[in-house]
Design a protein that fits this description.
By secondary structure, the protein is α+β, with helices and mostly antiparallel strands. It folds into 5 domains: 22-149, Bulb-type lectin domain (Agglutinin, subunit A, Orthogonal Prism), CATH 2.90.10; 308-427, 3-Layer(bba) Sandwich (Hepatocyte Growth Factor), CATH 3.50.4; 440-487; 501-589, Phosphorylase Kinase, domain 1, CATH 3.30.200.20; 597-803, Transferase(Phosphotransferase), domain 1 (Orthogonal Bundle), CATH 1.10.510. Helix content is 23%, strand content 26%. It has 15 helices and 44 strands. A 6-stranded mixed sheet has the order 37-41-42-40-39-38, with helices on both faces. Strands 3, 4, 5, 6 and 7 form a 5-stranded antiparallel sheet that branches. Helix 8 packs antiparallel against helix 14 and helix 10 crosses helix 13. Mean pLDDT is 81; it is low at 1-23, 430-462, 476-494, 663-673 and 800-804.
Length: 804
Amino acid sequence: MPSPLSHFFHLFLLFLPLSVISQTDNNIKLESSLSTQDKNPSWPSPSGEFSFGFRLLPESNLFLLAIWFDKIPEKTIVWWANRNNPLVEKGSKVELTNDGLILKDHQDNVVWQARSRNSETVASAAMRDNGSFVLMSMDSTITWESFDQPTDTILPTQVLGLDSELRSRLTETDYSKGRFSLRLQEDRNLVLYPFVLPSEDFIFDAYWASNTVDKGSELVFNSSGHIHLKLIDGSSYDLAPANRAPLTKFYQRATFDFDGVFRQYIRPKSQLTDGGWPMSWSVLWSLPSDMCSMNFRMGPGACGYNSYCKMDENQRPSCHCPPGYSFLDPINKYKGCEPDFQPQSCSQDRLKEDHQFEMKELINTDWRGSDYEIHDFVNEDRCREFCLNDCLCVGASFFAGRCFKKKYPLSPGKMESAGNKFLIKVSKNNSVLPPPRVDGRKKDRSTLILAGSVLLGGSAFLNLIFLLVTLFLFFISNLRKLPEVEKNSSMLGKNLRCFTYKELEEATSGFKEELGSGAFGTVYRGSLALGDSADSATSVAIKKLEKVVEDGEKEFTTEVIAIGQTHHKNLVQLIGFCDEGPHRLLVYEFMSNGSLSSFLFGSLKPKWYQRLQIAFGIARGLTYLHEECSTQIIHCDIKPQNILLDDYFTARISDFGLAKLLKTDQTRTSTGIRGTRGYVAPEWFKKMPITAKVDVYSFGIMLLEIICCRKNVESKAGNEEEVILSDWAYDCYREGRLNLLVENDQDVVIDGRQKLERLVKVAIWCIQEEPGLRPSMKKVTQMLEGAVDVSAPPDPTTFVSSLG
C-alpha cells in the first residue's frame, strides 16, 4: 500500500513541469492588461532581454503593440500587432482573456485579436527569452505565438514554414505594410518580390529567388546564428556566408528591411575586448548584396520611377534624382522623382521649342528599360539631336555608337562603376528657385553705389556736392526712361505678347465658351496661333478683367510685367495681354484637367497620393510668390477654383497678382473684402494690416479640404459638429479621432497615420486666428515635406477668445 509520502511525491512530479514553466516564463494571468497610460506598459521576458507591450513612437503620440529588445538603448522592435493598421492612440489597452489577446483602441473598439488554435481556451500567456510571445492552454500547450505571425524580422530558433512571409515596413519609421515581401511559396521556392501599392492584388516579378522549386521545406534561423533554407532531402541551401564572429556574445536578428534587402544584424551584448565591434547593430551579410543591380523587369524597382539607385558607403541602396528632377516625397525618397519643369509639348505650334531644352550628362548611369527607339552608328551629338527634336523623348542612353531613346516615366535606373553615358532632357529654365533678376534700375543703383565708394577718397565737401548732383541726374534720367520702359514690349518679358481686342474676340469666337468666372472676371476658352506657323493653333484661357483700376495704362502694364516675369512649375503661365481702350484681358496657357474644385469634389474620390502632391505643389507655388519673386505677390483669393491642373495633374496657381488690378476702394473695408467666403482670413474683418499671412490662412482651409476630400462648409453633414470643416478637424485632432477625417481611407492607412497627423497639424497652424501665429509659406512647405518638425498647434480660436 503506497504511503502518504509516495502520494505527495507523485503529486509533486505531476505539477513540476507546469511550475517550472511558470517560473521560467513569468506567466501572465488571465484578465491581466496593459494600457498606454501605464507608466511602464510592458511584460518582460524572464531575463529581461525582450519585452511585450506598448511602444511610444518617437516624436508622436501614437503607440505600437510590439515586442522589442529591452536591454539595449535602441529598444529595437522585432514584431508588432495588426499589420494593416498598427498604430493606436493614447488610451488604448491590451487584455488577456479566455478568447485570447484583445487590443482595444482609445474608444474601446476591438482593433486586433490573437486567438488560440482550434478555439482552445486560453489560460495564460508569456513573453519568452527567445523573443516569442505565446498564449497557452490549461495544460501549458502553446495555442498561439508571435513566431508564427512574423512581421519583418526573424530571431534565432525561429522557423518560417511554407507560405510564410516577412513583409517590409513602408519606411524606416512607418510600420505599415511596405513594398517588398520575402515568402517561402507553396512551390517551395524562396522569393523576394515587390508589391503594387496601394493595392495588394498584384505583385511584380521576383527580383531574387532561391530556385528551389519542389525542394525547399522551411527557412531556419538556428540558435548558433546560421540562416539557411532546409530542403526536403535533408540538405540545406545556405543564404549566408560562414559566420565570422562568436555569435554567442551577440544579440541577433534578421530583418527584411523597407528597402527590400534581407539583412542579418548582430550587436554585442557587452563591450567586447576583441573584434572591435561597435555597441550598435552591425550588418553581418545582406541578400541581395547589391540591390541596385537587381533586374526589375516591371514596376518602380528599388527607388521608383525617374530615379536612379546607387550603393552608398554602407552598402545600402540610396536613391537619387537626375538633374532637373526632384523627389515626389522628400521624406520617402524611394517613391521616385518628377521633373521640376513642364515637359516638352507635342502640340504642333510648340514643336520648334527645342531651343528651350538641353541635354545634361550623367556618367556611368543608365535606365535599362523605357526604350522605344534605337539608332545605330551615331555619335553623341547626333544622339542629343534625336532626343531634343522628339517631344516624346525624355532622355537617351548612349553607348558604343548606339542611341537608346527613352519615354516618360523612366524605369528604375542605377549608377554603375563603369558603363553608359546617359543624356537627360531638361528645361534651360528648370530651377525651382530662379536666380534673382537684375533689371536696369538695379544695375544703375549698383553703379551709383560704386561711384560713391570711389569718391570717398576725396574731400568730404566735394564728395557731398558730387553725390547730390549724381543723385539729381540719376533721378532725371530714370524719370525720362520710365515711359519708354513701360511702352517697350521687350520689357514685358521674354515670351509675353500684346494682343489686340479683335484678335482675342476672334480667338474665342465672340467669347462664346465660358470656362468660369470669379472675383476678377470671366474666363473663356480660345485658340491662338502662338508658334512660327500660322496654321497651327494652341488652346488658351482668356480672362476678361472687371473693375480694373482707372488710372490708365501705366498701372495695368506694371502689374502685367510683374505677373509675366514669374516662372514656376506650380503657377499658370501668362502668355500675353490686351490693353486697348476699356478692354483689359489676360491670356494664359490652357489647363486641360480643370480646377482642383472639380477634381476634389467630383463623383470619384482622388487618390491620397495625388492629393498630397497637389498640396505640396500649391505650397511651393505660394512660397515662390511670397518670397522668391523680385516683388512679393499676395494672391488674396486662394481656393480650389483658383488651382488648376495641367496634363500631368500638377497643381498650378491661377489669378495670382490680380488683386492689385482691382479698384482701390476694395482693399481693406468690410464691405469690399477680397477672397471667397470660408477661405477669407479673419483680419479682413478687423481692419488689420493685410500681409501674406492671408494666403497662409486660405491655404490651411484648402489643405483640410484636400486631406478630407470635402468642402470647408457642408450644410448637409450628418452631424452638426461636422458642418464647419476647420472646427471639426481641430476637434478630431484634439480627441485623437483623425481616422474620421479620412473615413478609414486605405491609401491613408498605408501611407501612415504619422503623415496624416503632421498634415492636419500644419493645416491647424495655418488657420490660427492670430496672423502672427501662422507660419510663413516657406516654413509650411518645409513642415509638409518633413524637413521641419511640427509642434502641437493651439486651438485656432484661442486668440479670438482672449480678445472677448
